[in-house]
Amino acid sequence: MSTIQTASLEVNLLPVPTWRHLKMNGCSLDISFEQEPFFPSTGMLALEKEGVLQRIPDFSKQGREKAVGEGKPEIQALTSFVQKNCNLPPYQVGVKEGQELEDPLMMDYLLDGNSPTLIETLEVDMGPRSSATLIRSFRTSQNTGSFFHAGSTRVHVGKKANLTLLHMRFLDEGTTDLDELYVTLEEEATFTLVEIVMGSAQSYIDTHVAMQGHGSECTIGCINVVDKQGSADFNFHVEHQGAMTNSSLLVRGALMDNASKLFRGTIDFHKGCKGSKGSEDEYSVLLSPSVKNRSVPLILCAEEDVEGSHAVSSGRLDHNALFYLTSRGIDEKNAKRLLVEAQLYPILAMVSDEQILSEIQGQLSKRLDSYGK
Hints:
Layout: E1 3-11, E2 27-35, H1 42-50, E3 53-55, H2 61-68, H3 73-85, E4 91-95, E5 105-111, E6 117-126, E7 131-140, E8 147-157, E9 162-171, E10 175-185, E11 190-199, E12 202-211, E13 217-226, E14 231-240, E15 246-255, E16 260-269, E17 277-286, E18 292-301, E19 307-315, H4 319-327, H5 332-348, H6 354-369
């Protein structure tokens, strides 16, 4: 028999606070969840059998604090919560030095009536000159119910290694989704993150990338399509620590019904990161007069010889473009869908797996087709 647990958390904290009356410095959450086991999917068990996915035998507090890096307060709260309440065996993905995995590694998590709660942790260790693609999907099996997910992921990308990480979140109303990702990059390491958030869940996504090594690169693309009463709360913090590092953060979204979104994006140039470049660009399409869209772009700079740029904007669909498409025989619903897809295309183009791309496009069509019903 499951028991209901409660907790209070501070998540998605800005590294440097802004005016308190704006209520965008972070989130204070009071959460409740059912405490019961969650069982790995058959795909994850297959990866475990192959030896690619391994359970962490000694999941001690000391080991986790070391993995966090510097114990940053803005990410420590959720880390501690996951460590204390984890209901899935902690896993590690290890790619050895020089190893190149051609096929993507798939990890699926399904929340349903039998498993309404998932609290999990994952560690990824990319050896020097290794390469891999990891795809993780989080779904709910039904449109109604109360579901809860909290995840903590630590990634280390070694010298000249390359990792592409794709997160897909297709979560419906009644779901609370908390997730944090902490990434460290060594010399000339390359990291690509594609974050897909679609649905009506209450999502809180916290991403930190520490570019420690000289010449390391980070590319982040994020799509958020939120409908009904859903909300998406993002906190991206990219730290340029090594010299000649490069980062790009591109966020595109569409808000429908009574949905809301809060974007926090920080490019952080540390002392010693000479020659580094960082950019962030965020845009949201507002498909309803009832949506709420807020953005906080930040650039922090402690070094002189760097380049940083940021831009945020939002707006409705272009009426001239909509008129053009409908005048060519395309009905209004499909014309709107095409215009939204055009805004999301730069990030969709980052998905190389055709089957995964088709699934994302299917989910997008499902959300847009149901808008207003």
